[in-house]
Amino acid sequence: MEGNHFQRQAAYTRKTLFDQGYLDEQFIQLEDLQDDANPNFVEEVVKLFYTDSARLIRNIDLALADNSSHFDFEKLDDIMHQFKGSSSSIGAKKIKKECTQFQEYCNAGNLEGCTRTFQQVKQEHATLKRKLESYFQLTRQAR
Amino acid sequence: MNLAGSQAVKSMSVTSSSVSRRSGDGVSDQFPAGLRVLVVDDDPTCLRILEKMLKNCLYEVTKSNRAELALNYLRENKNGYDIVISDVHMPDMDGFKLLEHVGLEMDLPVIMMSADDSKKVVMKGITHGAVDYLIKPVRIEALKNIWQHVVRKKKDEYKGKDYEQTGSVEDGEQHQKPPEDSEYSSSANEGSWKNPKKRKDEEDEAEERDDTSTLKKPRVVWSVELHQQFVTAVNHLGLDKAVPKKILELMNVPGLTRENVASHLQKYRLYLRRLSGVSQHQSGLNNAFMGPTDATFGPISSLNGLDLQALAASGQLPPQSLATIQAAALGRANKSPVPVPLVDQRNLFSFENPKLRFGEDSQQLNNNSKQINLLHGIPTNMEPKQLATLRQSAQSFGNLNMQLHSQSSQSGSLLTQMSQPQSRTPILNEINGSHVSTLPSSLGQPILSQALPSSVLPRNGIENVRGGTYGSVSQPSSALDFSVNPGTEFSGNSFPLMSNSGIPILTSKGMIQEEVNSEMKVPRGYLPNYDTFDELNQNRSQDWSMQNVGSTFDVSQHSNLQGSLGVSPSILVQQGFSSNHKSEQSRNASVSKAAFSVGDGRIGNSSSSGQQLNSSPADISQRIKAERLPNMGFQNTLFPEQFGQDDLMSALLKQQEGTGAVESEFGFDGYHLDNLPV
């Protein structure tokens, strides 16, 4: 049945996401929470993440663009901490990794390193979004 | 589901219902299903995930993305939640702050969460009293077991209650007051099976009293700082809602048991009651005083102005401590405008409750602004002039004028000790007050030389009568109020001493003793009003600090008293209490007895006694020594009933002089006035 086809595809896509390190076991925790009463729970949470994280990304960009003499690394780290926590809650493994890198540069007071790394963060953030969106589409079709 | 834990819990709780969780109990047949969790996290993603996880654990979940909102939920529905889970980093309020609030106000277990797993932060969570710390991302497995914290807490509470009960058993009168909230009641019920056993243990311990109780009833020394924390916690919760468990949590003091807090609270309530009683009379007066200072005091007074003072007076707290506390109080005061609903205190002071209601006291200070406030409020927030006024009143008390000292040299010794920043004064006052109260009526007179010749007492509670005697003391009641509930108590009791300085000492004998005992070992004898001890009794409740004094007084009546009120209550107490004073003693004895009765709620005519106290604090202290010692003795008697708290008393007593003697004399386990060597 077509359902099987989509199911297979969805399963394959999912596996790839894990294999390629985009997702970690926290994502499985979310999947485990999904049930009949909340059939789209995972998608719902991911959507929530992307909405909220957009705000955080904006704030970090603004903070990085701060040209004042005393750069506030602490504030930068603080926002990143929130972003990282949020990303890790959905199991966004690669994003999390880049966030950690960012924080290291932050602690070292390396603004250039932070800026560079943040580009990576945003990239991973966008990539995962794309992949998850297509994955969810498959799962919906597979139902 | 009946987990082992739940089984245990169930067995403990006689009344636990099976299906529905009783508020506070949380133990049901399906436990932990239905556990009411409040989860707070500003991250919407995490919040949603947690909510779902908790729901999957069959818990009843309430979520909030703002700490303030969460606190409101909790406050509105105190018994509506069993446990709180909160993130550490939140924009509107620090997670640790929320943790503190919840612990103090609601006494619920709180679990902290954060993506930050650094040892420092985790440690902070622990020190702030979190029952657990989860690292994000949180897994459902971690949430499945959170019910254990609820059970554990209840068990501990229960146990604490038990102790209290046993403790009170000893005291006789001091029966554990019924838990203020349903939780306690239930725990009491729950603990019934444990009681018999514990009770026995407790009793045994009680006999040993001192020390040994490490396991069961460790003696806690209610230092100024500790008391300050206590008062802050109580104020935060609101006197009416201040239950030991919550106070304990808010205080977040390792090693402190609910039992300790409970007995302390009892005394404090009495103290406050005393103060309110006095304040009622003096409300007019107080207002005058407190008016301006209220604002400042509000927060401070609640802070423990009383306690600090008392403590300071009792000598337990070194002046510096007082200052510190005061400062803290002030600091707090500054931050939070009168958190304490003093108003309640006033009611409390109607003296119905023999128990010391310190909590009230502090509150009163804020609200009452009446006399009591002066005493309590004096701490830190007091403005210089206010302090001065307070001082004055305190002075009248003489004894506890420790605070006064700072302002008015009268109290001299006492105050000097406390004289640290103005804030101190209040403390002193309080302490002094307590001392004052303890001063036996006889003392009161001589001491009151300042201005209050026996007539001073009347003022105590009520108006600055004390001030009258002291002359300068405009503040009167505040200081005294502490122990002496304004007006009423002082009326006869030794409160007058306090009146000026605001040292509740006078709280009509009864009261004072209690207060003194608890806080300051200040010689109870200070209650000059002892004659009218009955009245003082009322005061008793006021000043729990005074209570201590009483107890300690027994021991060294004279010697201590001399110390001057500032001498730190302990000294005085001891001296005075030994009730060696013949004259004094007899007076004291009567006073104490009266105090008891008074303390119970009537501070009736402390006027006479109060007057005595009003005399210059400095003098009083000295006098007290000589004369009052006996008073102290009886003060103790007053207290015993009330103070079930051994910790305080014993601590104070001990401190005072190495008090062992005192205690034995008084038989305090807490406050046993029975032993008063009348």
UniProtKB/TrEMBL annotation, chain A:
<comment type="function">
    <text>Functions as a two-component phosphorelay mediators between cytokinin sensor histidine kinases and response regulators (B-type ARRs). Plays an important role in propagating cytokinin signal transduction.</text>
</comment>
<keyword id="KW-0597">Phosphoprotein</keyword>
<dbReference type="GO" id="GO:0005634">
    <property type="term" value="C:nucleus"/>
</dbReference>
<dbReference type="GO" id="GO:0005829">
    <property type="term" value="C:cytosol"/>
</dbReference>
<dbReference type="InterPro" id="IPR036641">
    <property type="entry name" value="HPT_dom_sf"/>
</dbReference>
<dbReference type="InterPro" id="IPR008207">
    <property type="entry name" value="Sig_transdc_His_kin_Hpt_dom"/>
</dbReference>
<keyword id="KW-0902">Two-component regulatory system</keyword>
<dbReference type="Pfam" id="PF01627">
    <property type="entry name" value="Hpt"/>
</dbReference>
<dbReference type="GO" id="GO:0009927">
    <property type="term" value="F:histidine phosphotransfer kinase activity"/>
</dbReference>
<protein>
    <recommendedName>
        <fullName>Histidine-containing phosphotransfer protein</fullName>
    </recommendedName>
</protein>
<feature type="domain" description="HPt">
    <location>
        <begin position="38"/>
        <end position="135"/>
    </location>
</feature>
<keyword id="KW-0932">Cytokinin signaling pathway</keyword>
<dbReference type="InterPro" id="IPR045871">
    <property type="entry name" value="AHP1-5/YPD1"/>
</dbReference>
<dbReference type="GO" id="GO:0000160">
    <property type="term" value="P:phosphorelay signal transduction system"/>
</dbReference>
<dbReference type="GO" id="GO:0009736">
    <property type="term" value="P:cytokinin-activated signaling pathway"/>
</dbReference>
<dbReference type="GO" id="GO:0043424">
    <property type="term" value="F:protein histidine kinase binding"/>
</dbReference>
<feature type="modified residue" description="Phosphohistidine">
    <location>
        <position position="81"/>
    </location>
</feature>
From TrEMBL, chain B:
<protein>
    <recommendedName>
        <fullName>Two-component response regulator</fullName>
    </recommendedName>
</protein>
<dbReference type="GO" id="GO:0003700">
    <property type="term" value="F:DNA-binding transcription factor activity"/>
</dbReference>
<dbReference type="InterPro" id="IPR001789">
    <property type="entry name" value="Sig_transdc_resp-reg_receiver"/>
</dbReference>
<dbReference type="InterPro" id="IPR011006">
    <property type="entry name" value="CheY-like_superfamily"/>
</dbReference>
<keyword id="KW-0010">Activator</keyword>
<keyword id="KW-0597">Phosphoprotein</keyword>
<dbReference type="InterPro" id="IPR009057">
    <property type="entry name" value="Homeodomain-like_sf"/>
</dbReference>
<keyword id="KW-0932">Cytokinin signaling pathway</keyword>
<comment type="function">
    <text>Transcriptional activator that binds specific DNA sequence.</text>
</comment>
<keyword id="KW-0238">DNA-binding</keyword>
<keyword id="KW-0804">Transcription</keyword>
<dbReference type="InterPro" id="IPR006447">
    <property type="entry name" value="Myb_dom_plants"/>
</dbReference>
<feature type="domain" description="Response regulatory">
    <location>
        <begin position="36"/>
        <end position="151"/>
    </location>
</feature>
<feature type="region of interest" description="Disordered">
    <location>
        <begin position="158"/>
        <end position="213"/>
    </location>
</feature>
<dbReference type="InterPro" id="IPR045279">
    <property type="entry name" value="ARR-like"/>
</dbReference>
<comment type="similarity">
    <text>Belongs to the ARR family. Type-B subfamily.</text>
</comment>
<dbReference type="Pfam" id="PF00072">
    <property type="entry name" value="Response_reg"/>
</dbReference>
<dbReference type="InterPro" id="IPR017053">
    <property type="entry name" value="Response_reg_B-typ_pln"/>
</dbReference>
<dbReference type="GO" id="GO:0003677">
    <property type="term" value="F:DNA binding"/>
</dbReference>
<feature type="domain" description="HTH myb-type">
    <location>
        <begin position="216"/>
        <end position="273"/>
    </location>
</feature>
<keyword id="KW-0539">Nucleus</keyword>
<dbReference type="GO" id="GO:0000160">
    <property type="term" value="P:phosphorelay signal transduction system"/>
</dbReference>
